[in-house]
């Protein structure tokens, strides 16, 4: 009896380790932050080429939705000595109406413009970019050649893959915690 309970508790411990381990999973060479995975490389691209590159990796060009995410990316760019990176938003269809991958209907999920931006310089600044000096954003010409790419994907899909591969842990779901905090078997 005691041995059986011990065995089950061990199972639960293994399950907890399993959940903790899996919840932090991004494919190798992707940076993890929150529930997302981020990928950079050392090649500068136009905005369209960057978008196609990320699409090919099963992700999207980075869209920053919170100041907290902005600070993470700001740090990432600084660490990698990258001056500019594209964000997956543009106003190329209608001047002044910004559209992002994840939130096409309602404009920018966050606004973090640098001073005097957006200025639609020369009438051709239609793609969004973040600068590593202060983490602020500018509209930029979509075809400039000095901007780096950051791709983003959720880690949820990747979690699912691993859960399927290790399904032997699933019987644990019938264990609950009692009101006294003890495991109820
Ligand atoms: C990019 O360049 C930096 C500095 O030269 C290097 O440390 C890093 O490994 C490179 N990253 C990739 C993905 O090639
Ligand atoms: C940047 O480098 C610092 C110092 O090594 C590190 O603490 C931080 O986690 C790094 N940030 C990112 C986003 O990689
Ligand atoms: Ca514009
Ligand atoms: Ca501009």
From TrEMBL:
It holds the Pfam family Lectin_C. This is C-type lectin domain-containing protein. Residues 1-24 form the signal peptide. InterPro entries: C-type_lectin-like (IPR001304), C-type_lectin-like/link_sf (IPR016186), C-type_lectin/snaclec_domain (IPR050111), C-type_lectin_CS (IPR018378), CTDL_fold (IPR016187). Keywords: Disulfide bond, Signal. Residues 33-148 form the C-type lectin domain. CDD domains: CLECT (cd00037).
């Amino acid at each position: 009896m005691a041995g059986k309970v011990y065995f089950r508790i061990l199972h639960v411990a293994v399950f907890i380790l399993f959940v903790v381990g899996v919840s932090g999973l991004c494919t190798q060479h992707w940076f993890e932050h929150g529930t997302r995975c981020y990928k950079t490389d050392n090649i500068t691209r136009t905005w369209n080429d960057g978008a196609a590159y990320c699409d090919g990796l099963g992700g999207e060009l980075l869209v920053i939705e919170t100041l907290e995410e902005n600070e993470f990316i700001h740090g990432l760019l600084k660490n990698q000595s990258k001056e500019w990176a594209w964000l997956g938003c543009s106003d190329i269809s209608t001047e002044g109406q910004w559209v992002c991958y994840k939130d096409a209907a309602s404009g920018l999920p966050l606004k973090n413009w640098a001073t005097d931006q957006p200025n639609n310089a020369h009438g051709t600044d239609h793609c969004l970019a973040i600068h590593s000096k202060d983490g602020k954003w500018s509209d930029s010409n979509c075809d400039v050649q000095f901007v780096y790419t950051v791709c983003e994907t959720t880690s949820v899909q990747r979690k699912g893959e691993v859960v399927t591969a290790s399904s032997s842990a699933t019987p644990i779901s019938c264990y609950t915690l009692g009101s006294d905090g003890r495991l109820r078997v």
